[in-house]
Amino acid sequence: MSDDALARIAAALERMAPPPAPAPDWDAADAFLWHAEPDRLDPIARVNRVGLPLLVGIDRARDILLQNTSQFARGLPANNALLWGARGMGKSSLVKAVHAEVCAADPLALVEIQREDLGSIARLLNLLRNAPRRVVLFCDDLSFTHDDQHYKSLKAVLDGGIEGRPDNVLFYATSNRRHLMPRDMIENERSSAISPSEAVEEKVSLSDRFGLWLGFHPCSQDEYLAMVRGYCDAFGIAISDEEMRAEAIEWQATRGSRSGRVAWQYVTDLAGRRGVAIG
C-alpha cells in the first residue's frame, strides 16, 4: 500500500475518532460526572450524600478510607480501593462522605464514571492528567459479565500499561462482589476452559490490583436501630425510643432485610409523616 493511501486512512480514522473533551472549569465544583461521546465532564453543584458521622456500623472501613484519601489529597502515597459487600450498607455513601470530609481541608475533586463508560477511560485519564488538583475517580456498582471487555480498559487505570495511572488520580470502586464477577461465572470458566486457572485469572486478578479491600457486611438489629436514631437526631425528628424501635423493626421486617439504606427509607417515611424536611 502506498504512503498516500496510508495517509488517507490515517486521516479518515482521525476524523472518526471522538474530539478531545474540553477542559472543565475545575473551580465550578468539587465533583464532576463523566459523559462519553461526546466526551465531557459536567460539574455537580450539589452532591447527593450524607455526613460522615451519620454512617454507623462501618467504623473500620470509614477510618481506613478516610486515612487513605487524606494521604492522597496531601500528595502522599495511597492505594486504589475496592469497597465490596452487602447491598445498602453505605459503600458509595462512604466514598462521597469521605470526599467531602477531606475536601474541606485539601483541594480534591471527585469524578464519577459509569460502568458503561469504562471503554472511554483512557480518554478521561488524559483529561485528568492535566487537572490542577488531585482527583478520586469513582465507579459505583462495578461488576462484569462473561462477555464484558470493560475490565481490560480498567486494568490500565489500576497499574497496567506503559503510561500507567496519572499520579494525581486515585480509583475507588464499589461492588456487591469481591472479585467483580459472579461466583457461578468463575466456576463455569474453570470447568469449560482448557487451562481453567488461566481462564479465571485474567478477570479475577483485576480485584487484586486494588491495594485496599474494604468489606461491608449485613448489620445487626442494634446497628440498624442506631442508624435510625442517628438520622432522627440529626434531622430533629422527635420520637421516643420505644416507638422508633417498634416502627423501625416492622419496617425492616416488611422488606426482609436490615441495612443503612432500609434505615434511611424508614426515616424518610417518618420525616414525611411528621412534616420534617430532611436532606
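Second entry:
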Amino acid sequence: MGSADIVPGVSGGTVALVLGIYKRLISNVRQGARALKLLVTGKFSDGIAALVAIDWLFIIPLGLGVVGAFALLRHPMQDLLVDHAEGTAAVFSGLVIASCLLVTRQITDWGPKTLGALVGVAVLAFYLLGFQAGASADPAIWMFALTGSIAICAMILPGISGSFIMLMLGMYAAVLGGSISELAVFLVGAVIGLALFSSVLNHLLENYEQVVLGALLGLMVGSFRVLWPWPNGVGFISDEANETVVGTGLEMPSFGEFIGGAGLAAIAVVVTLLIVRLAEAKPVTDSDSSEPSHV
C-alpha cells in the first residue's frame, strides 16, 4: 500500500482490495476516528475503550509497512522527477486516466447535478492550477500539516490517491524530500485530517454519492493542467534545491516526447486496470464480510 500511495493516480485502497483487507482497514479507521473524537470531547473512559477496541495487531504492522515503503521509495521517486520528468509525468497521466475510467464506471446517475459537479470542478481545478508556480522548493512547516490533512482524505475517497492531492498542491516533491521533522508534522496533519473528515466524507458518499463521484471525476480531469504537457513534467525541485521547474505550461511537447509519453501512459492505464480486475475477481472472504464505506 505504501508503494502504491507514493505514486499519484494509484490508490493504496486498490492494493488493500487485492489483498482482501480493505473492509477491515476502513472499519479500523472509523473506530480510530471515533476514539479520537471521544477523547477530544472529554469522554476519556469511552475514548480509551474505543482505542482498545481497535485491531492494533492489524493496524501496527500495516502502518509500519506503509511508512517503510515510503522511506525506501521516496528518494528514487525524487530522482525520477529530476532526471526523467517527462516520462514520469506521462506515467502519472496514464494512472489518472485509469482512475477516471474507474470512477466513470461507478457513476450511474448522469443527471444535471452530477454533470454540473463534474464540469464545474473540472473548470475550477484547471483554472486554479494555472496559478501554481510549480513544486514548492521551501514550503512553510504548516503546509506539511495542511497537505497531510487533505491528502489522507484520499484514502477513504474512491479512485483517488493521496500523492495525487500532493501533486495538485505543489507539495509532492517537498514531501518526498522532507526532513524527519517535516514528515512528522505531515503525519500529525494526516491523523488530524482523518479524524476530522472521515465521518463527513462517509456521510457525503452515503447520501450524495453520485454528485461526489462527479466532482471527483471533475477534479481528476482538471488536474491534467499539471500533468500535460510533458516538457516540464509535473514540476520538480532541481538538485541544487533552489531552482523550481514548473509543470503547468500549455505548450505542446515535441513529436518524439509525445509518442514516447503516450506509450508510457498507455502502459500505466493497462497495468492499473489489470490490478483492479484482479481485485474484482478476488472472492469475498470472512474478513471482508462487514459492509464498508463506498469504494
